[in-house]
Design goal:
Helices cover 23% and strands 22% of the residues. The chain contains six helices and ten strands.
Length: 265
């Protein structure tokens, strides 16, 4: 599931393949931008902003994409047949003499002026993996609505940019509280600890393909609760449970996490 660490890694792979090279092929397969032609222009950089990807091109253009649940970018040597899925799932192609990047199942794809990037990412909170990371501002935003559940506050990209459903569940577990607990009922030290842990986990995972939140004591189990419904908690042995919070499936340990419990179907 693409979250801030996945997007950071995707941006760096795209940057290595495209930046500093002249585009020889461009194809944006959405009606509004189907006739756009960026060939002959140099890709300047590819940057991650939270869960957004910004591919900046010479002349003041940015290709903006968002993977959401199952989008992906794949890079192949130019001339090599792409294998990321059926051809009809390809929504973007950016290629140069050496490499070609294919965007699969992209729910968000648009071409905009680089000067207008704030229109699509200006609402985001501090980026957990960005150069502008500001933990104090992240704590302030996370705590701004005391009545909101922790899970909803963590997923709100206006608070911290980069957290998705996996990290939401894992962070709540590591904090010892359920995702249904209102933010205003968190112990005073927990918001700052949550923010620090979120930053540490995304930093630790940004360079590796398999996401891990557990310690080396659990080599075969990369996550504490996410996806582990019915299995014993690694700390207390209680069965991990699953329920919905909003429209997102949520995992938690009723033995380790205090606060309101979700309603298991």
């Amino acid at each position: 599931m693409p979250e801030g660490d996945t997007i950071w890694l995707a941006a760096h792979r795209l940057h290595d393949a495209l930046a500093g090279r002249v585009l020889t092929r461009t194809d944006l397969r959405v009606p509004r931008f189907a006739t756009a032609d960026l060939t002959g222009r140099t890709v300047l950089d590819v940057t991650a902003r939270g869960k957004h990807l910004l591919t900046r091109v010479e002349g003041g253009f940015t290709v903006h994409s968002h993977l959401r649940m199952d989008g992906a970018w794949r890079v192949y040597a130019t001339g090599e047949r792409p294998r990321g899925g059926p051809d009809h799932q390809i929504r973007a192609i950016l290629g140069n003499a050496e490499n070609t990047a294919y965007g699969y199942r992209l729910p968000v794809l648009e071409l905009l002026r680089t000067a207008e990037e704030t229109r699509v990412v200006g609402h985001l909170g501090p980026d957990l993996l960005g150069p502008d990371w500001d933990p104090e501002e992240a704590v302030r935003r996370l705590s701004a609505d005391p009545a909101r559940t922790l899970g909803e506050a963590l997923l709100d990209q206006r608070n911290l940019a980069g957290i998705g459903n996996v990290f939401k569940c894992e962070l709540a577990f590591l904090a010892g509280v359920t995702p249904w607990l209102p933010v205003g009922e968190l112990p005073p030290d927990v918001p700052a600890r949550l923010v620090a842990t979120a930053h540490r986990l995304l930093e630790a995972n940004k360079d590796r393909p398999e996401r891990r939140t557990t310690t080396a004591r659990h080599p075969g189990v990369p996550l504490y609760v996410y996806g582990r419904e019915g299995r014993p908690c690694l700390r207390c042995g209680a069965p991990v449970r699953k329920a919905e919070l909003g429209e997102r499936v949520t995992y938690w340990c009723p033995g380790c996490q205090r606060g309101p419990q979700g309603e298991t179907p």
